[in-house]
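User: Hi! I'm working on a homework problem where we have to compare a predicted structure to a textbook description. Could you give me the structure for the chain below?
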Amino acid sequence: MKLSWSYRIVILYTGFVAIIVTLVTICMRQTVELESKDYYAQELKYQERIDATKNANALPNSIAHEVNGKQVVLTIPTELLTKDFTGEVYFFCPSDGLRDVKVKMQFDATGKQVLDVATMQKGAYKMKLSWSSNGKAYYKEDVITLH
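Assistant: Happy to help. Predicted structure tokens:
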């Protein structure tokens, strides 16, 4: 039995529509997250971050980090530990926003802070360090991998 050209066009069109509906269904099930909930507000303040990064790069010694098993050890030069020192460590997980963690910086008198990361899932994180000292803002990013 031979199909006429009109049946072939109907079969081709129906197959095309089925493929498109399948692709749309797959795309609708994908989760799409922005880097942060207030992404656009942060974008407006981006020049402040650029200035803070320049300030951190101009330091002779900045905050250093070391990953030791289930701990991240931060070390800061003691000359940056002033009375007005405030800071925050933000562990940003690019693959899953639910794994992000924020920790307040609280260094001891020797300039060390040990962060327990045992409860965090394994994987790559972008560690964003932001702090202010002596009236200046500083910002630094490092990529770490937790095992």
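For your comparison, note the following. The longest strand covers residues 123-133. Strands lie at 64-68, 71-75, 86-92, 101-104, 112-116, 123-133, 136-146. Good luck with the assignment!
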